[in-house]
Amino acid sequence: MTEKRRTPEPPVKNLENNLKAIEEQALLYAKDLARVFMERKEQERQLELTKQQLERSARITLLGELAAGIAHEINNILTPAAGHLSLLLMDRANFSEGVVERLELIEQSLMKASSMLQQILDLSRKKPEKREPKDISAILEQSLFLLKYRFIKSQIKVEKNFQHNLPKLWIDDTQIEQVFTNLTLNAIEAMEQGGTLRIATCYHPEKSTKKQPYVEILFEDTGCGIPPENLEHVFEPFYTTKGEGRGTGLGLFICYGIIEKHGGMIDVTSAPNEGTQFKICLPAS
Ligand SMILES: Nc1ncnc2c1ncn2[C@@H]1O[C@H](COP(=O)(O)OP(=O)(O)O)[C@@H](O)[C@H]1O
Ligand SMILES: [Mg+2]
After folding, report:
1. What is the pLDDT of residues 51-84, one digit of tens each?
2. Rounded to whole angstroms, how far apart are CA atoms 202 and 198?
3. Which secondary structure element, helix H or strand E, spans residue 58, and what is its range?
4. What is the atom index within ligand 1 of the atom nearest the CA of 221?
């Protein structure tokens, strides 16, 4: 066999090819570098987010324990007072009408205080008491129904976007209804000039994003919004921006505690003067 001899490429053409190859290599390398850089940035962002969530969770837990301790002590003081008061009211025939009226007003105030303290004490118990498989859409409908007249009075439009055939969730429905009511009341109070409250539910069967399938519930209002510097405090006990006698600062703290006890999570995003969005995730298995 005779070997065919190839004529060598002219040196300029060779150089051009080499340069092109180097250029392509450099571009690939730069793209790779950019991808690694973006991935690193995303990891850092996620890490920072997790760190912030952990710090927030630790802060709320600590404040919650403090609140539960105080609630326990005050409850101990109020219990005998309430006992003596009911004994007095049993003897109402011995008192004038005016005195009985005042005793009843004192009783009402004591009952209010006691129910507030009880809510804080309930939260310090780690597990929800009675969990059963429940339909989350029905609970949402129920809490919206109870606030129907508040929507009309405040000129608030309610838009519902509930996914059909959501799986039933193992929850304490009374507690979860309380969460929905608290979030709705806050939304109403944030939309004094009227607005829209959107509530949506969505099932995420995939296991990749969270460790288990979950149902997401969104509450979105077009109200006054929350300034960025206030956002991290809204779940803390007794944090309120509402005036004296209007807010207790317990609503979101209770929501946070209830959702955490159910193994879920609650988060908030907001833009001042545009609106606020609360996102709840509850495990669906
Ligand atoms: N939907 C909302 N829009 C604007 N601000 C909100 C909203 N929900 C909660 N907030 C803010 O979070 C604070 C704490 O809420 P909450 O714990 O329910 O207590 P309260 O309603 O008694 O003030 C409120 O005082 C308000 O500043
Ligand atoms: Mg509230």
Report:
1. 888 888 888 888 888 888 899 999 999 999 999 9
2. 13
3. helix 11-90
4. 1
Please tell me the residue having the least CA distance from ligand 1 atom 27: 241
Report which ligand 1 atom has the smallest distance to the Cα of 182: 18
Mapping DSSP to helix (H, G, I), strand (E, B) and coil, where does residue 107 land?
Answer: helix
Per-residue confidence (pLDDT) for residue 127, from 0 to 100: 59
Q: Using alpha carbons, select from 116, 191, 180, 112 the residue that is nearest to residue 150.
A: 191
Chain center to CA of 18:
58
Say which residue, 155 or 2, is predicted with more confidence.
155
What are the pLDDT digits (tens) for 122-159?
A: 887 765 668 999 999 999 999 999 999 999 999 999 99
What are the domain boundaries of the chain?
9-124, 132-283
User: Ligand 1 center to residue 117 CA distance, Å?
Assistant: 19
Q: What is the 3-state secondary structure (H, E, C) of 134-156?
A: ECHHHHHHHHHHHCHHHHHHCCE
- Give the closest ligand to the alpha carbon of residue 190: 1
Q: How far apart are CA 207 and CA 166, in angstroms?
A: 16
- Amino acid identity at 237: P
Whose alpha carbon is nearest atom 4 of ligand 1? Answer: 225
**Distance between CA atoms of 82 and 250, rounded to whole angstroms?**
23
Please give the CATH topology (third level) of the domain spanning 132-283.
Heat Shock Protein 90 (3.30.565)
> At residue 3, does pLDDT exceed 60?
no
Q: Kindly list the protein residues whose Cβ atom lies closer than 6 A to any atom of ligand 1.
A: 182, 186-187, 190, 221, 223-226, 234, 239-242, 247-253, 276
Mean pLDDT of the chain: 90
Share of the chain above pLDDT 90, in %: 69
